[in-house]
Specification:
Blueprint (H helix, E strand, L loop, with lengths): L6 E5 H4 L2 E2 L3 H14 L11 E4 H8 L3 H15 L3 E6 L4 E6 L1 E7 L4 E6 L1 H8 L5 E5 L9 H11 L10 E2 H7 L10 H18 L5 E10 L2 E11 L16 H12 L2 H6 L8 H12 L2 H6 L1 H6 L10
Antiparallel strand pairs: 1-8, 2-4, 3-7, 4-5, 6-7, 9-11, 10-11
Helix pairs in contact: 3-4, 6-8, 9-11
């Protein structure tokens, strides 16, 4: 899978979760999520492999430090937790990311086994989810930039976020109570650095700014606003044009007959081939699914056309 087409997909409850992962831990989890979504079946017993080579190539890091960094990250990730809100149960829970892991030094890869909660949060495409290209965050050097970007990605289609209470935003970004206690320190060391890094990264299509809202004399809320950058250079990530009606008919029919795709996106019990193809066709109207299913589309003859500049 090309690093240009690696999609990160997370249930919004995971996007809104509170956790504190290091930069390497976040990168490892993001690679793990993209790899897991390529597997024909993802379950509690499914090993998710992330190679050191793919980590080096994706994040453009040194060979000499990558091996040790990943080994340390998989060890600490095993102990990490996140807190999330379950809207169905109307409860807040704590959960682990992985329940088993190994670093195969002689083979050059990490093996992780995701918890059931994480599996559900990266594979339920019919639920509310946020998606973005891994390539867009690969250049970030701050763990806060990655977290802030994916929080904002949930709102890109709207153009602005809700008003986040400062305490909630700190928790989502993984800021401990003992860290950056004053608003000035929080803004200088976390928000401003993350916003500036996002804004100067050429692979990101949006320019970010934020507004502050006070209660009395105290800043209590922050809202982020996003606008698309007017100028795209040649390095901006390629997108796909929408399929024509003729393409939708043809490729939905071909995918419905492709065995490897049938294992990836299953027909309902008792669903006939025609209805299955119609359901695929509806999905392909969204370019997200064109990218998500790109490797299967290539197998049946689809060629992506780049958006004109």
């Amino acid at each position: 899978m090309s690093d240009k087409t690696r999609l990160v997909v997370k249930d919004n409850s995971l996007i809104d979760a509170s956790f504190n992962l290091s930069l390497v831990e976040q990168r490892l989890m993001l690679l793990g999520i993209t790899e897991a979504r390529e597997l024909p079946k993802l379950s509690l017993e499914t090993p998710v492999k992330v190679s050191v080579k793919s980590y080096i190539e994706q994040f453009n890091v040194s060979d000499s430090t990558a091996y040790e960094a990943l080994q340390d990250a998989v060890n600490t990730l095993f102990e990490r937790q996140f807190s999330y809100y379950d809207s169905v149960a109307n409860e807040r829970y704590k959960e682990r990311w992985i329940y088993k892991a190994s670093y195969m030094d002689d083979k050059g890869y990490v093996v992780m086994f995701f918890t059931p909660t994480v599996i559900s949060m990266i594979s339920r495409l019919e639920a509310q989810f946020t998606k973005y290209m891994l390539d867009q965050v690969s250049d970030f050097k701050s763990k806060y930039s990655i977290r802030l970007y994916e929080i904002l990605a949930k709102w890109f289609s709207v153009g602005h976020t809700e008003k986040y209470a400062i305490s909630d935003l700190r928790a989502m970004l993984g800021i401990e109570e003992t860290e950056y206690k004053t608003m000035s320190l929080f803004k200088t060391n976390v928000l401003d650095k993350a916003v500036n890094e996002i804004n100067r990264t050429h692979r990101v299509e949006y320019k970010i700014k934020y507004e502050q809202f006070k209660e009395g004399k105290t800043i209590a809320y922050i809202m982020f606003k996003m606008t698309k950058k007017k100028v795209k250079d040649d390095q901006t990530i390629d997108l796909f044009n929408n399929m024509t009606d003729k393409q939708l008919d043809m490729f939905s029919d071909k995918l419905s007959r492709l065995e490897s795709f049938q294992n990836h996106f299953r027909a309902y019990v008792g669903e006939d081939l025609k209805d299955y193809a119609i359901r695929i066709r509806e999905k392909l109207k969204d370019n997200f699914y064109v990218q998500e299913w790109f490797k299967y589309l290539e197998q049946v003859g689809y060629v992506a056309t780049k958006l004109s500049k």
